[in-house]
């Protein structure tokens, strides 16, 4: 049978086969064949890699001294501790920056340091990423400043801080863009000369490594006892920041998040406990998806439309009443953020609808002086995903544009930003998520060059959405034992998504509508019948009007609990109607 593929449907990318590795995995680990195929589809090449992925533990974390500047950074911090010097911890205004700042503040205070904490407030259009750090340091007589999740692209501003007699230690994970700031030490796994093996650490991950190294040095010098500091207590913050910042859940990050989720479930932080409560989350069931969809947006709303320092305060609060009041304030800010976001999203969609030529290019660039600069990152990500194109959304205020960029795997951002740096005031970030500031008059030229570069680099097929299928499965294999074995692959998140499986099936009767946008499918294979929920696919209901239709479905299975009864349900990501002809696997990319 050949699938009938609707126009603009995603391209199905079928899993690669590797018979010898498949046999080696099933023999070595005694795991379900479908799990073995999922691991092959995820790019694992050796038994050693798979063992590390499945069974990595805290002792397998990398030595923080693998950062080239770590010893210098630790020595300067020990000097500050010895001399009782106050020092400033200055973080970026997103969840990664907040968690990193909270982690270092709590850690340093626990070993007797005098710490001042502040967070960059970039919801306003400042040209500098470091913002008011120098003034805060001078006001508090700090002779040392530690940046967290920021600083690597602020060479000029850091130079000014150093000229004022303040030593700077940068901890960051963003890609260096040009000149590296001149300071005491730079801890960043993405530096060209970095010998740290994990490039995917987030800002809070780098901060944790610094805390780890300082702890080891204090124990070695017998300044503290080995039991005085328990670094596991900070892993909840590491998990929260890593998930919120879309850190790749592979290797070391996976270990940090796996143990961090266990720590989060203990609810030792009063502020987070209240935030879970307001978000209707059960702590013992919390997942990376819950953090990304419910906790991170509430904390991020501060950085977008309010005062991000309150995020750090919430993470450090011990008082129940204060925590509850602040958690409720965050919730209100989040509602306000959602309202603003909805208005801007409608404005953007109207612009695209009225100007369909925008979608003729292989990149999207939009700007307005009506859009709130704190919201554009969310919308850039959404538009990039919706249209599968590199996207730049710019908010203009007083002749200066603040832009947020998101892209697709085939088009990394930093090379194009570096190439046209002469048109930009500033830029920074990663290859797949970046930010820039630009003079309003330079936007048309930059837009032309950005869209032209995407047109040259991308093929027609690149801008089609792709579904990367992990493995084929039969309904007979979808048992509760199999669902239990999927836990081996958790935690799911960026670069380790929930498995996407596929199979052929028969529609028993036409789908049932759920609300306006979703539908329930009734599917059969052999003697087994299962229900599927197709979120957001109700617009394709007309394709499924007849009972007895043969379908090929792409789905993620999950256990559905209803009235204390468990059943296996399929979350349908896409479907193809099969007709007589060629086998289904001959369509798509293999």
Termini gap: 17 Å
Residue-averaged pLDDT: 92
Question: Number of DSSP strands?
Answer: 19
Question: Sheet bearing the most strands, described?
Answer: 5 strands, mixed, barrel
The computed structural class is: alpha/beta
Count of alpha/pi helices: 18
Report the uncertain regions: none
Strand content: 15-25%
Task: Please supply descriptive tags for the structure shown above.
590 residues; alpha/beta; 5-stranded mixed beta barrel; 5-stranded parallel beta sheet; 19 strands
Write up this protein:
This protein has 590 residues and is α/β, with parallel strands linked by helices. Helix content is 38%, strand content 21%. It is built from 18 helices and 19 strands. It has helices at residues 19-29, 33-41, 47-55, 70-82, 95-110, 133-139, 155-163, 203-220, 235-244, 251-264, 270-278, 288-305, 309-316, 320-354, 376-387, 414-419, 443-457, 480-486; strands spanning 2-4, 11-13, 86-91, 114-119, 144-148, 167-171, 185-187, 364-368, 391-397, 400-406, 426-429, 433-439, 466-468, 471-472, 501-514, 518-525, 528-534, 550-562, 565-579. The strands form four sheets. A five-stranded mixed beta barrel has the order 15-16-17-19-18. A hairpin with a 2-residue loop joins strand 18 and strand 19. Helix 5 (95-110) runs antiparallel to helix 9 (235-244). The longest helix is centred in the middle third of the chain and has 35 residues, at 320-354. The radius of gyration is 25 Å and the shape is globular. The two termini are 17 Å apart. The mean pLDDT is 92.
